[in-house]
Design brief:
- The two termini are 44 Å apart.
- It is elongated, with a radius of gyration of 28 Å.
- It is mainly alpha-helical.
- Helix 2 (13-25) crosses helix 7 and helix 3 (27-37) crosses helix 4 (40-77).
- It has helices spanning 2-9, 13-25, 27-37, 40-77, 81-97, 99-102, 108-156, 158-168, 175-195.
Length: 196
Amino acid sequence: VTLLFLYLLKPFFFPLFWAVVIAGVFRPLYRRINGKLHRPNLSTLILFMMIALIVLLPAGIIGKMAFNESVRLYAALAPDTQNMDQSLHRFIDTISGNSVLRLLNIEKAVVVSKATEVAQGIVSFILSHLKSLTQNTLGLLVKFAIMLYALFFLIRDGDRFLQTVIRHLPMGMGRETFLYERFIATARSTLKVTLI
């Protein structure tokens, strides 16, 4: 039953992992806030707002900048559809009028059919990848929502979850706590370097 349960959770390991990492990194700050307020839900909400400002807002800004840049690049590279037909005819006339290429006996019909094949290939490539991009974006949003949901409870009840996990791990002699502290120290250092 445990193996089946873990198999069912397999698609959610990545968002749950990031929820654990973020909750562990911001755990001391939560303790400080909750020590002053003594209201776990309000303390978690305040910490959520801080995480949004520290982690999620910069990531959102960078993602938006990358999206805008890709749209701008696509617009710069995209052919002008109104002049595409004229450009194709100009290209065919240039090929037909070239004395060297006339020796190759290139026919206009062959050039038009090949140009049509290339255009159809480009359009089908864009449509097939657009579908996967849309599906990936939807999946990313669902995983992000799962991560935020799990993060709330991991921040608020993190000590209780950690004690339960430590109690069920068979390492003993405080090794679980040592490994957890090392993991959080490494994650905290990595996130600091990334933010810098």
